[in-house]
Amino acid sequence: MLGEEVTTRNGHVVALGTDPGTFVDWRYRARDNRFGRFARQIRRAGGLVVPAHPHATCIGCNWSNGFGEADAVEVWNGPWTPDDEVALAEWDGTLVASVRSEGREWIPAMGNSDAHRRPDVVGLPQTVVLADGLSREAIQAGIRAGRSYVAESQHVSVAFSAAGGRGEHAGIGERLEVGPDTPVTVRVDVTGAPRCTVRLVTDQGVLFTSAPLPVSGTGSVEWRTTPSYAAYVRAELRHETALGPLPGAPAAFTNPIFLGRG
Description:
The structure is a single chain. By secondary structure, this protein is of the alpha+beta class. The chain has one domain (72-259). It is 15% helix and 33% strand. The protein has 3 helices and 17 strands. The chain has helices spanning 35-44, 82-100, 136-145, and strands spanning 3-8, 11-16, 48-52, 73-77, 109-112, 126-129, 148-151, 157-163, 169-171, 175-176, 184-191, 197-202, 205-209, 219-225, 232-238, 250-254, 257-259. Strands 6, 7, 10, 12, 13, 15, 16 and 17 form an 8-stranded mixed sheet that branches. A 4-stranded antiparallel sheet has the order 9-8-11-14, with no helix packed on it. A hairpin with a 2-residue loop joins β12 (197-202) and β13. The longest helix is centred in the middle third of the chain and has 19 residues, at 82-100. It starts with a strand and ends with a strand.
């Protein structure tokens, strides 16, 4: 899959999966109001528009062109740092806004390794996509639909689902179509995350935190709720931390499952 990291004067954006030979110009600032034109060029060339590391601290790296054109947003970039934590919180705020504003679309999250030099590592983190095939179009469709999660490495895997009482079922990026007071069971199955805790985050904030997983890194948790209590739920795996109330760095996090009839 080809692409370009477009390094505008006020932030970077990934043109993900563009046709061979595509060049997207980068010589403009946010106040020039030109980004919409180049976002359309990315889509015409078969690509996705993915603002990158929106709160990075390098000069000109933080994203200032808004998210109205975004097909997804890069929430985790390279080793976890405070700007990633800010990006995750900001993205979660967009999910809250989407469920509280009728008709507003939500933006899926991604993670990329952005390895520029040694000792940077390609694939730390990585986006794991549920796709109907390995074609560019199939993978992009999975990303655009949010059928994905972000993991720190290939060793971490997450299965995340929600079920109603009459056989209703939804996975990552999907909607569980049940009534507002229908009991819902949320389940997370994890491998490769020793001593991590599982956190379930909703539009009401963090509503569940598990005990640490065993040193084997394998475990399962279940949580019960209703759509009237949680409009969406997403899962995070967090490493241990010695900084008191602050959460540890993530081993993985998922896109949300929406609960209730849209």
